[in-house]
Amino acid sequence: MAFLTLGIESSCDETAVAIVEDGSRVRSNIILSQAEHSVFGGVVPEIASRKHVVSIGPIFKRSLSEAGLELSEIDLIAATRGPGLIGCLLVGLNFARGLSLATGKPLVAVNHLEGHIAANSLACVDLDSHHLTLLISGGHTLLVEVRGTGDYHVLGETRDDAVGEAFDKVAKLVGLGYPGGAKIDQLAKSGNPKAIRFPRPMRHSGDYDFSYSGLKTAVALHWNSLSDTQKQSDIADVVASFQEAAVDILAQKTIDAAEELNISAVTLAGGVAANSRLRTLLAEKLEKRGIKFYFPQLDLCTDNAAMIAAAGYFQYRLRGASKMDIDSQPALRLGQ
Ligand code: KG4
Ligand code: ZN
User: In this predicted model, what pLDDT tens digit does every residue of 207-233 receive, in sequence order?
Assistant: First the structure.
């Protein structure tokens, strides 16, 4: 009999509810991205949590109806515990608690970062197999050795800005709006990635840590030195050159770690995993070395609830249900 998990994600500015069968087959995946924040150039926590309160009920109902299911048919309720914005996390976890109390179905509170990693199980990766994950989002830049479900060893992380944050800040600087990662990806296709040689901080630092604030500043200094006419004519070259530097560092560190640890498979996770240049570059480099490469489809890279349902399913099989009074944790780390 199929085991159905209903997942809820509300850690930042996406209200999402999904239903996943046996931790791997998506039955429905509803995501509402809050458009309200773009005029502010970033997420406004108070607006985000209020919007979650309004949207979560209708999104939950749509998720059930798209899957053609009744709530009574769901076996497990999973919701994001953290990391994220506290007001936002509380909405999703409390909604899940209510569903669990009303139905008597078990509740699991899931680490959002484990969710991003588990998105790969929806792309048919056996999460129990030993592999390396590059977890890159608006808030995180982590290189993680996955030794099995729930068994993570963080090899390195960013010392300052996350790579997604650097994409968003550069996008804002050149007037592409927020969030800007996908817009840079698109515009870079018409630019020359070798036009400007931006620095690649910590590319050969000998460890697996990252740093993105220096690259962001170098792009800002270059941009601010251009005249208005140059800005208009050079914008695609600037973003393409920035993107090339950003993904070159990610790819180099990933290859170094895969070779040092003798790893046979690499996966991507998190919003920046949607980046087309990174996917192409890593695919080329890994193929040459005979290392397998997997990444989730685009809508499963950025925040979604299918990944929370998948991670919740594996967590439940491994460690059982969470306690009903479990709290939200805005600064939760991977493996906690
Ligand atoms: O995982 P996610 O949806 O939310 C967080 O948990 O942070 O990641 C969002 C981040 C944003 O910084 C966004 O600009 C970036 O992922 N992003 C991209 C692309 N699509 C989304 N960055 C580069 N290229 C993309 N195609
Ligand atoms: Zn995320």
Answer: 999 999 999 999 999 999 999 999 999
User: Does 236 share its domain with 149?
Assistant: yes
Q: Tell me if 270 CB under 6 Å of ligand 1.
A: yes
CB of 142 closer than 6 angstroms to any ligand 1 atom: no
Ligand 1 atom closest to residue 165's alpha carbon, by position in its atom list: 12
Q: Residue 161's domain spans which residues?
A: 130-298
Residue 331 is assigned to a structural domain of this protein = no
Are 261 and 304 in a shared domain?
Answer: no
Ligand 1: which of 250, 302, 308 to mutate, judged by most atoms within 8 Å of the beta carbon? 302
Give the ligand 1 atom nearest the CA of 276. Answer: 26
* pLDDT for position 205: 85
Task: Please check whether residues 98 and 151 belong to one and the same domain.
Answer: no
The ligand whose atoms approach the alpha carbon of 14 most closely is: 1
Answer yes or no: do 148 and 236 share one domain: yes
Q: What is the pLDDT of residue 42?
A: 85
327 within a domain of the structure (yes/no): no
Confidence (pLDDT) at 322: 98
Query: In this structure, are 287 and 158 located in the same domain?
Result: yes
pLDDT < 70 regions, the chain: 127-128
Q: Are 149 and 61 members of one domain?
A: no
9 lines ligand 1 (CB under 6 A): no
Residue 330 lies inside a defined structural domain of this protein: no
Q: Domain tally for the chain? A: 2
In the reported structure, the alpha carbon of residue 168 is separated from the centroid of ligand 1 by a whole-number distance in angstroms of: 8
Cβ–ligand 1 contact at 82 (below 6 Å): no
d(CA 151, CA 325): 25
